């Protein structure tokens, strides 16, 4: 370098800016506000859906005497939907909240105990069927990876999805539930 260039560089005393912090902070604040807006809109949509489903009656509680236990299962509750419409999630009365679950099947019905969420009971007379499926609103598994129980509540048919900690149990649950429903229907027809 020539002495004239060195003198010119030394007199300016300033290097080129490396980072524009105001622009970077502005982008981060804008992104945070956008994420907050999206979260708020999702929450409002969830509340709106619960309002639309407000005609759904309160969930029944388990009776004191349920009879002998037929089956038990621990696993995950993945949600409830309108029957045979696997994307129409029901959120009223806490049915849309995923949670751990303890299922107990007795002659009286299906007791659904959900730690941290609303427990409910499906009376045997309200059970309509059980099947293995691969998905329910927001959860898709391998074929047959989900136990789906169809039940009546008020004037609505509901599918509730469960996944056992031991997936091999699903087939026994389907067979027992469907046999229980068939037996009840044939006994009712004979009367």
TrEMBL record:
Domain PH: 56-177
UniProt key word Transmembrane helix: yes
Keywords: Membrane, Transmembrane, Transmembrane helix
Pfam family, one: bPH_11
Superkingdom, natural source: Bacteria
Protein name: PH domain-containing protein
Membrane-traversing stretches: 25-42
Alphabetized InterPro entries for the sequence: PH_bac
């Amino acid at each position: 370098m020539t002495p004239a260039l060195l003198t010119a560089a030394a007199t300016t005393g300033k290097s080129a800016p490396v980072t524009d912090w105001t622009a970077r902070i502005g982008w981060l604040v804008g992104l945070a506000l956008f994420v907050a807006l999206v979260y708020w809109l999702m929450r409002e949509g969830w509340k709106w859906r619960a309002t639309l489903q407000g005609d759904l009656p309160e969930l029944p509680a388990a009776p004191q005497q349920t009879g002998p236990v037929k089956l038990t299962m621990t696993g995950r509750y993945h949600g409830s939907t309108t029957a045979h419409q696997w994307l129409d999630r029901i959120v009223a009365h806490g049915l849309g909240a995923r949670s751990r679950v303890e299922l107990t099947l007795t002659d009286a019905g299906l007791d659904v105990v959900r730690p941290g969420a609303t427990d409910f009971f499906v009376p045997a007379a309200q059970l309509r069927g059980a099947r293995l499926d691969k998905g329910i609103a927001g959860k898709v598994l391998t074929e047959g990876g989900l136990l789906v129980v169809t039940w009546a509540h008020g004037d609505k048919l509901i599918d509730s999805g469960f996944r056992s900690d031991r997936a091999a149990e699903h087939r026994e649950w389907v067979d027992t539930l469907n046999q229980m429903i068939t037996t009840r229907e044939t006994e009712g027809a004979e009367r």
